[in-house]
Design a protein that fits this description.
The chain is an all-alpha fold. It contains 2 helices and no strands.
Length: about 50
């Protein structure tokens, strides 16, 4: 049995848990999340294709 995890859902779950535990971190979590999703969108999850 193979388990395939994508980066986006894992980041979403981690960010949601952190926001529930420490609501003051919301701004930082959203900022890091958006940067990470932007980088994944720019470079893809398969690495650099040059």
């Amino acid at each position: 049995m193979n388990i395939h995890l994508s980066l986006t859902p894992v980041l979403s779950v981690a960010a949601g848990i952190l926001i529930l535990v420490v609501p003051r971190l919301l701004n930082y979590i959203v900022a890091v999340y958006l940067i990470a999703i932007g980088l994944v969108g720019l470079f893809g999850t398969g690495g650099f294709n040059m």
